[in-house]
Amino acid sequence: MAPKSRSYQLSATPFVIFAQLLAIAVTTLVFVLYLHFEGGFAFESEDKTKIFNVHPFLMVLGLIIIGGEAIMAYKIVPGDRRTQKGVHLILHLLALTAGILGIVFIFRFHNEIGAKDMQTLHSWLGIITISLYGLQWVLAFFAYCFPGGEMSRRGTLLPWHIFVGMVIFLLAVATALTGLSGFSNLLLSTKGYILNFTGLLILLFAITVTLTVILPRGY
Amino acid sequence: MAPKSRSYQLSATPFVIFAQLLAIAVTTLVFVLYLHFEGGFAFESEDKTKIFNVHPFLMVLGLIIIGGEAIMAYKIVPGDRRTQKGVHLILHLLALTAGILGIVFIFRFHNEIGAKDMQTLHSWLGIITISLYGLQWVLAFFAYCFPGGEMSRRGTLLPWHIFVGMVIFLLAVATALTGLSGFSNLLLSTKGYILNFTGLLILLFAITVTLTVILPRGY
């Protein structure tokens, strides 16, 4: 990743398009999994699974898919940098909100079934991810929006903003994989395959988003 | 990651040193976990856990730690590029061998306890990782060692070699996290904490190795 982006001799455009196809595929699988196989969603229900289901739904489609689109905003959105920045900022706020809600629902689920919180590596990774996500959003808002730092400072900060942002995004993906893998077993037949393929497609989405960050804009 | 490495205004050296401390910490935790808590290692034993233990041991210390050192060779090894390349190539071969052996041991363990293979997301991610690792090693050997491509071709290929290499390394890390998280639960008290902290330290090692790739050599 060290060499200049030009040296890849490709533009981000084909990967931006591929990422949209992957986003559609992941969204479809998540809906099939949690609506068809797992009985849907609920805030209150006798069937506690419905409360649990909100957690992976918000995490995958909110934090990861919308978060990924936010990252790609600079390569997708036509027009000036101001518009791109606005889309980047708002999509990340949406993703962060979905992530926080998703965590609220898993605590709620644990509370309903009387399970202890924060026991697993998945939960530790998740709390670290959401904390860094929030921190990164707030710091970047101060530095790049309001009140906004000096231009030279912004420039110095930018590579670190991008690096830390990518670390947080890939951390979210790794956390999702640990979460999905806790339930994945082909002994569950169709459901197991859907879980495994959801994991693989999320991974492919993450790789594609990373490529669009490295490669130059195509138009 | 798109901007030039100079713009980070830091050299890789402090991160190379930090990575060594993390490598020592992970190695210590893995030894404590599998020797003290899990009863050690065996190729044949009535205690099947001892056969299983070889798998995470080889994967974490072989594929991830030695693999990470191989990646950092260009920032660690003093002397000319030829020496660095030799160290990079040999350490990756060691890591790959450890990875293949680690997979042999998990198939052996499944066979001994009569479990089905390749059921989980962890196993799918693992097989993909080791296949890509082997492919990347062989292709890079042909391109950069023997017979070796034209100089201009090597240059064109290099950013992709680095990008694909980092994808494989981070894939190995994500796979390890899904593996560890399958056993992590603080209800296991001390052992649970060791598992979770091993996961976090592996993650920190991965981030640090990635930084050393992006940042320029310090001396």
TrEMBL record, chains A, B:
Annotated organism of origin: Juglans regia (English walnut)
Protein name in the entry: ascorbate ferrireductase (transmembrane)
EC category: translocase
Cofactors, names only: heme b
The organism's taxonomic lineage, starting at the top: Eukaryota, Viridiplantae, Streptophyta, Embryophyta, Tracheophyta
Reaction equation(s) it catalyzes: Fe(3+)(out) + L-ascorbate(in) = monodehydro-L-ascorbate radical(in) + Fe(2+)(out) + H(+)
Database matches in CDD domains: Cyt_b561_ACYB-1_like
Domain Cytochrome b561: start-end pairs: 18-214
Keywords, sorted A to Z: Electron transport, Heme, Iron, Membrane, Metal-binding, Transmembrane, Transmembrane helix, Transport
Membrane topology value: Multi-pass membrane protein
Localization (cell): Membrane
GO cellular component terms listed in the entry, alphabetical order: membrane
EC number: 7.2.1.3
Pfam families: Cytochrom_B561
GO molecular function: metal ion binding; transmembrane ascorbate ferrireductase activity
Ranges that cross the membrane: 12-37, 57-77, 89-109, 121-146, 158-181, 193-215
Keyword presence, Heme: yes
